[in-house]
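In response to reviewer comment 3 from the previous cycle, which asked for concrete evidence that the modeling workflow produces usable outputs, we include below a single protein chain processed end to end. The sequence was submitted unchanged, and the resulting structure tokens are shown without manual editing.
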Amino acid sequence: MHTVQLLLKTSKYERHEIDRRFHALAHLHNVCVKHARKCMIRLQHDKRYAELRQLYNELVKKEKMSKEEKSQKKKLAKQLAACRTKQGLSKASLEHYLKVCGKQFSKLLSSQQVQAEADRVWCGVERCLFGNGKELHFKKLMDFDTIGGKSNKNGARFDLDAMHVNWLGLSLKCYLPKSENSLSYVWESLKGKISYCNIKRLMFSSGWRYYAEIVVSGAAPTRVSIGTSTMGIDPGVSTIAGVSEDACVLEELAPNAIQYEKKIQKISQRMDRSRKISNPNKYNEDGTINRSNRDPWKYSKNYVKMCRLLKSLYRKKHAYIVDSHRKLCNKLITIARYFPVEKMHFQALQKRAKETKRQEKKTEVKQKDGTVKVIQKYKRKKRFGRSINRRAPARFLLELKRKAEAVGGVYAEVDTKEFKASQYNHVTDIYEKIPLTQREKEIGKRKVQRDLYSAFLIRNADLDFKHPDREKCEYEFEYFADMQDQLILKMKESGLSMRQCFGF
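The workflow returned the following structure tokens.
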């Protein structure tokens, strides 16, 4: 499956009509959420369900189960599913409930579009029942940006010959890209069977713009020629390091994303000031929100404009990050075909540290009376949350995997705990922890950049991807060291530096 996004030509009336349909969908979504929350509360108070759940959890915790216990587990699973269905918590029951509620909007939304929204609510219910979800939340109208579909015969139907989207009385023309490369790519992408068509809207500073998101079966056409070598990848929260047989890559992820962050911060501050001026009774003397005040919030016209601008900035930031990641992925794919990548847990890295620890080094602090006291300062609990939000490294790895597999490449993950690329020294054959601030390592008589050396070790991993192949490392090390020296020299000459990450 792949998607093709085309801008829709809309008049004032058509924009108003589409906004009505988004409003109807938002209403139906929140109605379904309200119903699902009630069903979940009833399920929590069901004593029979609680007893079955306890028995099921006891069986799951066992390391080894007998045949009788496995069959008992299956029976319990069926009984639990029956209890959930009885309380109205199933995909089919939510679809039926929303189908009845959606009859009043039959001229605005098709039955399959209503079903698609029920499926989204059910995904949230599954996360609460079986995953790490805590609560099912309502959504604001501004948060709705897509009206989904299930087939090209119901709801929004895309007509390839006329390049129109026909949707319950609306006939919306699709704009085609002007450049020849983009136009040829669109026509090539639309050769497959059209599965369904979504209606998407994106916020610009001038207002909403509407798009047809056409979902086509089959793989997307490729425009990148794939390489032949193996490239080890060492991903960081802000950078990416790659080493192949004849190339070294050390790049900053989304280098201009900070510009959007600054603009977003300024707009957010202005919105906060405007909100306080318009609603003085909603705030306490210390500036915190007065929760006891139930008066409706008031927003100025300028606040509404800034809200649109803020949403537009978030869209631009997202588009820039995705575009930057895809360009870098294309660059790597032209070099190599096989990508062993160090597995990263970015979700854990973005959280604050739980334990309060002191720094290893001691610091001299001057007292008021002029004396000097030596103390150990506390370590910062903040970790890499801001960098991960700004750079989106996990999104880069997903794009690399998708693009590599689309052109016949191989993407393999290396377990960090087993491999320990940042600690290994192939000359001494010893694992040694070094502080994160130390960006250079001394390997034999050569100094190497930490991330590039880790990527070099990953590239020369054994067949199980658990340990570096020491013989390969010894054979190729000198050539790698020369390549990385040339790369760092070029980067310094061109002014590309990140002292905290690169070391220069």
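The radius of gyration is 28 Å. We consider this sufficient to address the reviewer's concern, and the full set will be provided in the supplementary archive.
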